[in-house]
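Why do we care about 3D structure at all? Because function follows from shape, and shape follows, mostly, from sequence. That is the central idea of this module. The next example makes it concrete: a single protein chain, its amino acid sequence, and then its structure expressed as tokens.
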Amino acid sequence: MTTPRRRPMRRLGDLIPDAARALGLEEELRLARAIATFEALVAERVPAAAGACRVVRLEGFAIDVEADAPIVAQELRMRAAELVSAFAAAPGGVGVHELRVHVRSGGPRV
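And the structure:
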């Protein structure tokens, strides 16, 4: 009696890019990774801005970030060179050269 050969085990995280490609979701996966990377960098390098800003778009070589308040936007702009450099070097980052920060308009975010 012959036993079926098992495929070598692979980490689930290693399968996600192939699955995303097969489903046509590569861009969404890239954006999700970039967002997670940026949030981690902000939490580490600009803790006062953590949770008060979010990535809204990756466009070409720029990352657009929305800040909840002018003071948060100012802090992010002051640390832009450091954040862009760290983001570009991070595994989940992409070749970004510019950080664009916008203050969110409207009422409080719920």
